[in-house]
Amino acid sequence: MTDEEQQAAIEAAQRVVDEVSSWQYSAEESTIAIQLDQGLRAAEVSLPAEERERILAEIDGMKDESSSAPQVRTATPAS
Fold it and tell me: Compositional bias (Polar residues) at which positions (predicted)?
C-alpha cells in the first residue's frame, strides 16, 4: 500500500467518524458501533481493532458535549 492509499483511507475513515460523531454521539454504544461499522464498509476502509475501540470510546465520551470528534490515526483500504 502506498502512502497516498493510506492517506486516502485515513481521510475516508475520518469522514465516517465525523458523521457518526455528529449524529450518534448520544446514542447507545452498540448503535454507535453499528453506525461506525456500516459507514466504514460503505467507504471501503477498515480500522485496526485497537483503533476502532479507541474511536468508539471517544465518541461515547462525547456525551458531555464538550469533546470534539476523535481523530483517526490509522486506516487501510478494505480488502
Answer: 67-79
Q: What is the dihedral of CA 24, 29, 30, 36, to 10 degrees?
A: 50
Backbone angles phi, psi at 71, to 5 degrees: -100, 130
For the chain, what are the domain ranges? 3-71
Confidence of residue 44 (pLDDT cuts 50, 70, 90): very high
Beta strand segments in the chain, E? 45-46, 76-77
Specify the pTM. Answer: 0.88
Query: Could you give the dihedral angle defined by the CA atoms of residues 52, 26, 63 and 13, in that order, rounded to the nearest 10 degrees?
Result: 30
